[in-house]
Amino acid sequence: GAVVSQHPSWVICKSGTSVKIECRSLDFQATTMFWYRQFPKQSLMLMATSNEGSKATYEQGVEKDKFLINHASLTLSTLTVTSAHPEDSSFYICSARVAGGPGELFFGEGSRLTVL
Amino acid sequence: DQQVKQNSPSLSVQEGRISILNCDYTNSMFDYFLWYKKYPAEGPTFLISISSIKDKNEDGRFTVFLNKSAKHLSLHIVPSQPGDSAVYFCAASFNGNTGKLIFGQGTTLQVKP
Question: Considering A8, A18, A68, B26, which has the largest number of Cβ atoms within 10 A of its Cβ?
Fold first, then answer.
């Protein structure tokens, strides 16, 4: 199947700093990517839909100024957690679908963020 | 408000037996349901899906059943294999397979040899 890769897989940062997480579709083009967040023992929660060449669409309750999403190419979307706080510590995971296809979503490996 | 619920956090079955993972939902507007499997340190991988116009979909060892009146779906794995040990998530979406998924909390399946 198609491959979606995230980087970094884990990151530890100090409170107040910003962290960027990359999501790449390695062998296909994705006009749309999705960013999810998972807190311990909870389900994956959709944060935003990343659209290539346009602004991301955020879910209710997700601060767009805190979680900056850029989808500059058909193979790369980035999520930047700005001014991170300990409560932002979570597992962030992206998914992508082949452009123009109706098929399944492919998920990245996830990125574990720990804010000290 | 948890719209998709997996009330069993874990399940243990013997190799060769049937594994039944359950999922309940509250929103009757969901029209597409999916099951994903997740190993530690990996992203979820798609297993099987079902549209709300069907009540059963089968793919090899995996079968998903949908009971719309009860707002309940289940994933049957038969025969279960040790390699099936993972966390299983059910997910639902509106307006078909849009990619915007609402996930359950997951159920950890352990298949014992």
Answer: A68
Query: Is there a contact between B41 and A49 if contact means CB atoms under 8 Å apart?
Result: no
Separation of alpha carbons B52 and B38, rounded Å: 24
Question: Which H/E stretch holds residue A73?
Answer: strand A67-73
- Give the pLDDT of chain A (116 residues) as one tens digit per residue: 678 999 999 999 999 999 999 999 998 888 889 999 988 878 889 999 988 888 899 999 999 999 999 988 889 999 999 999 999 999 999 999 876 655 678 899 999 999 99
Site of tokens 């990245």: A108
Residue A62 token pair: 């997700």
Which chain B residue has its CA at the smallest distance from A6's CA? Answer: B43
